[in-house]
Amino acid sequence: MNTTNNLEIIHDVFPYLQVYKNGTIKRLVGTEFAPATYDPQTGVTSKDVLVNPKTNISARIYKPNLPTKTKKLPLVIYFHGGAFCISSVGDPKYHDSLNVFVSKANVILVSVGYRLVPEHPLPIAYGDSWSVLKWVAAHNLKQGCEVWLNELVDFDSVFLAGDSAGANISHFMAIRAGKSDEALGMKLSGMLMISPYFWGEEPIGIEIQDPVRKSMVDKWWKFVCPSNKGNNDPLINPFVDEAPSLEQVNCDRVLVCVAEMDILRDRGILYYESLVNSQWKGNAEIIETKGEDHVFHIFNPTSEKALDLVKCWADFINKK
């Protein structure tokens, strides 16, 4: 065996992972794991549940510190980021930031454990996410057995949320939920889009002045979803003709959050503007955090700007 050839890197997807000629996949970040538990800093308790034993799809459920008798709470279904190829519901960065989110917003949260590229090529992540949504919705139909969902959730106040790739997934889940031939089984009240991962072949906004980062993001998607459409594949560019119409987004309210220094910023702004100018009947808002980069809140969830952002999420979800 030629071990030198086997150690040759055939895909270097900086800064996420490397793929070797022998098939070995080396993830460079997002591999740490924090167990579900009680968090003394926030009073939030979490637990892991197996959603589908056949595919090993799981979710992590969070609940805030609650009095013995309490009214039912809004439900947030959260899709983590990581360019579809890294991270998990047990990633300590996500676990810590979601503890803060749940405590500040006073919600029940289901963090979705979809499978990753390249072992599980797209669109598997979308199918996994839909299966978790259907599992959650079964509780609204009195067909689920998860106690926290049955006893604590107000199914008249259900939100999709996600950052980066997770925001991308949220968008497609909101569209799929509106298709009459596969009713979800619960109404979606709103969607929280944090630094959404959308892209395109032709540069816009900040991308024009930053060809180095533009090239890096180009490479991510071509690895994640190799196709003859490149970065104009409808899964990454919701503004191309083949993509589902934005008016199909099946919720009443959307909050788009972007960061000033993020190379993906202008795609998030374009999503907001396109949604507002479409035939969609809901209400959209956008907020921009100055001086920060992509998903900054994940890396420092207790910073002043991260807490300000979480307050915006809490206000959006609890708005009557």
TrEMBL record:
The source's superkingdom equals Eukaryota
According to the entry, every stretch annotated as the Alpha/beta hydrolase fold-3 domain falls at: 76-297
Any one Gene Ontology molecular-function term assigned to this protein's record? hydrolase activity
By its UniProt entry, which Gene3D superfamilies does this protein fall under? alpha/beta hydrolase
Pfam families, alphabetized: Abhydrolase_3
Instruction: Give the record's family classification.
Output: Belongs to the 'GDXG' lipolytic enzyme family.
Alphabetical list of PANTHER family matching this protein: ARYLACETAMIDE DEACETYLASE (PTHR23024), CARBOXYLESTERASE 2-RELATED (PTHR23024:SF577)
What is the name of this protein? Alpha/beta hydrolase fold-3 domain-containing protein
Q: Which organism is it from?
A: Anisodus acutangulus
Q: What is the lineage of its organism?
A: Eukaryota, Viridiplantae, Streptophyta, Embryophyta, Tracheophyta
